[in-house]
Amino acid sequence: MGQGKPMGRGTTLLPLLITWCFMVASVQSTFNITTILDGYTNFSVLNRLLSSSGIATEINDRQSLTLLAVSDDTLNAFINSNQNADAVKVADLLRFHVLLQFFSMDQLKALPTTYFSSYTTLLQTTGKAIYNGEESKLNIYNTLQNGILIGPALPGAASNATVVANITSSGVDISIMQISNILIPVGFSINGGDLMQVLMGFYHYNTFIRLLNATGVTDALAAMQGQGLTVFAPTDAAFSALSKPVESLPEDEQKLLMEYHVIKSYLSLDSFKHLVDSPLQTLAATLATKGYKLSVTGLLLQTGIVNVTIGDVLEDANPVAMYSVDSVLLPADLFSAADVPPSETAPAPLPKTNSKSNGTTPQAPSSTGSPVPVKNGAPAASTGTSGSALVLLLSLVFLIM
C-alpha cells in the first residue's frame, strides 16, 4: 500500500490564512443607525437630527458604542424652547449622547452599586479644548432604588437621566438605550456662546480678556458676532513671553494689536487647511490703516514678525470661531524683529506651492484631545485597508501553494 504525499507547509497554513483573510475583510460597518431608527417611529426626530448634523455618519464609522436615545416628545419640547439653537452646538449635544462603549441592559445592571463608573462620549473626539477632559464624560450610576441613572461627570449637572429601556442591540457593535431626558454638559449653552464667557471658562486667557476690555474691542466683538468673525486668543504665557508688556504701547496701538487678533469672517478649522499664502483682513485693517494683514497657510499664521500655529478650538459655532494660539500675533505694522525674543522670530517663509508642485499644507501639532478611534485602526477617509490586506494575503496563499 503506497504512502500518501506528506502534508506540506503550504497545506497547513492555507486554512489559517484563508480564515484570517475573511476576518480582516469582515471588519466593516455592520450597522446603519439611520436604518435602525427608521423602525422606531418614536425616535424620528432624533433620527432626523443625527442625519442632518452628520453625527449619523460618525456613529456608522465606529464599532462598539451605545446611543442614548431621547423620545420625540422630549426632543420636540427641547427644540421649541431653543428656537435659536446653533447647529454646531446641536451636533455637540448629540455627540454627548453617544457612549464609546457597548452596553446591554444586563451589563448596565451588572455595574457596581457602591460607586459610579465614568465613560467617554463621542463629544471628546471633536478635539475641542473645552471637551478634552471630564466635560465630555458621563457617569453611570447603578442604584438599587432608582434604577440606572446617567449624568455628566462634572459636578454641578442640572439632573441625571434614567435609563428607560433597551430599544435594540446588534451583537457588540451598537446598543440603543432610551433615556428619560436630554443630557446637558455642565456649562454648555445650546445657543452661540458669548466669546468673553467662553474665554473666562478656560482660566488661561486673563491677559487677553483684560486687554480686550481695556481697549474697547470687546464691544466690537459683541456687535460683530452675528456677522461672522474668527478670534485668535493668545494664552497668558504668550503675553508673559513678550520682551515688554503690551501696556507699554500707546493706547491706540494696544487697540490695534487686539484687533489684529480678529478676522472679519467665520473660518472653520477645516477652512484654514485649504488656504495657501492667503492674506486675511483683520479687524485692525480699516480704510485708515490699510496694512495689518495676516497671511495664512494651512494652520500657520504669518505676521511677518512671528509664525504661529493655530492650537485648540475654543469655540466653533458658525458664524463665530475662536482658536487658541501660544504666541501673540505681532503685526509688522507695529513691531520689528528686535521686539521679539530670538527664539520666537519668524523663520524663512514657506515655499509657495502651485498646481504643478506637490507642496503640502503644514499641519498643526496633534491636538491635546484624545485621538479619534476609527474602525480598522485607520483614518475614516481610508476605505481600502481591508481590501488591500485581503489581496496581499491571497497572493501569499498562492505563493505558498
Automatic annotation (TrEMBL):
Keyword annotations from UniProtKB, A to Z: Cell membrane, Glycoprotein, GPI-anchor, Lipoprotein, Membrane, Signal
InterPro entries per record: FAS1_dom_sf, FAS1_domain, Plant_FLA
Record's keyword annotation contains rRNA processing: no
Disordered: region residues: 341-384
SMART domains tied to this protein: FAS1
Domain FAS1: 30-183, 192-329
Transmembrane segments: none
Domain of life: Eukaryota
One GO CC term, this protein: plasma membrane
Entry membrane topology: Lipid-anchor; GPI-anchor
Entry keyword Cell membrane: yes
Signal sequence coordinates: 1-29
Biased composition (Polar residues): 352-370
Cell compartment(s), UniProt: Cell membrane
Protein name: FAS1 domain-containing protein
Source organism: Riccia fluitans
